């Protein structure tokens, strides 16, 4: 599991996340800053796993999560809101609390690959 899709509306956080993932040996193969592009990328792009921001400019990323569930793609949420959005499944999904350190991202990615 090396190719990661990032859904993040804050460009600085997306760049930081990309750098952190590279440090851990992952490659960001796609990134989307809004719900529309995230849905298109989640539907049409090949990747191994995804990291989703819970809120994309006020819109929930839950539709992207549902599409990833349908495709059988593992993902985790990165959020400053504390929890995954209501309706998320499975409930055992890793949730990465923003702001996070490299070690926290590493642990979340390990949980994601073990799921």
Automatic annotation (TrEMBL):
<dbReference type="InterPro" id="IPR011006">
    <property type="entry name" value="CheY-like_superfamily"/>
</dbReference>
<dbReference type="InterPro" id="IPR001789">
    <property type="entry name" value="Sig_transdc_resp-reg_receiver"/>
</dbReference>
<protein>
    <submittedName>
        <fullName>Response regulator</fullName>
    </submittedName>
</protein>
<dbReference type="Pfam" id="PF00072">
    <property type="entry name" value="Response_reg"/>
</dbReference>
<dbReference type="GO" id="GO:0000160">
    <property type="term" value="P:phosphorelay signal transduction system"/>
</dbReference>
<keyword id="KW-0597">Phosphoprotein</keyword>
<feature type="modified residue" description="4-aspartylphosphate">
    <location>
        <position position="53"/>
    </location>
</feature>
<dbReference type="InterPro" id="IPR050595">
    <property type="entry name" value="Bact_response_regulator"/>
</dbReference>
<feature type="domain" description="Response regulatory">
    <location>
        <begin position="3"/>
        <end position="113"/>
    </location>
</feature>
């Amino acid at each position: 599991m090396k190719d990661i899709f990032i859904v993040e509306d804050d460009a600085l956080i997306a760049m930081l996340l990309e750098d952190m993932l590279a440090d851990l040996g992952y490659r960001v193969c796609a990134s989307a800053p809004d719900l529309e592009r995230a849905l298109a990328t989640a539907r049409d792009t090949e990747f191994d796993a995804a990291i989703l921001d819970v809120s994309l400019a006020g819109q929930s990323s839950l539709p992207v999560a549902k599409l990833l569930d349908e495709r059988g793609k593992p993902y985790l949420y990165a959020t400053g809101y504390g929890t995954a959005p209501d309706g998320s499944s499975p409930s055992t999904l890793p949730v990465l609390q923003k702001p996070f350190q490299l070690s926290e991202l590493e642990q979340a990615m390990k949980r994601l690959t073990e799921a």
